[in-house]
Amino acid sequence: MEKIRYRCGYVNGIEVDPEGTRGGLCLAWKQGVSVTLRQFSKRHIDVVIDDEETRGERFPWFVCGDFNEIMYDFEKKGGAQR
Predict the structure, then answer these.
(1) What is the pLDDT of residues 15-67, one digit of tens each?
(2) Are 12 and 30 in contact (CB under 8 A)?
(3) How far apart are CA 43 and CA 49, in angstroms?
(4) Which end is more exposed in the chain, N or C (fewer Cβ atoms within 10 Å of the end residue's Cβ)?
């Protein structure tokens, strides 16, 4: 995950390791932003962001990965039964 973070131009980051070949999280930010880790688990990362220039503004975020999840049984095609 660190290599991907650097390739995207993010020097700083917090990573939660995957369990085996599944899961894992990464929160990345550019230099000059102060991020304080509050808590984390295998499903979330909770931080406080302190940046003088953007105090009080909402920060953009994105989620990426292999979200192989379905909401309804009719969406499932093949594989093991749920």
Answers:
(1) 998 888 777 888 998 888 888 898 998 888 888 887 676 665 666 666 666 66
(2) yes
(3) 19
(4) C
Cα separation of 27 and 74, whole Å? 33
Q: What is the pTM of this model?
A: 0.61
User: Is beta strand 25-29 parallel, antiparallel or unpaired with respect to 12-16?
Assistant: antiparallel
Instruction: List, in sequence order, every residue forming a beta bridge with 45; answer none if it has no partner.
Output: 40
Instruction: Give the separation between CA 6 and CA 51, rounded to whole angstroms.
Output: 21
Backbone angles phi, psi at 17, to 5 degrees: -65, 150
Residue carrying structure tokens 């509050």: 38
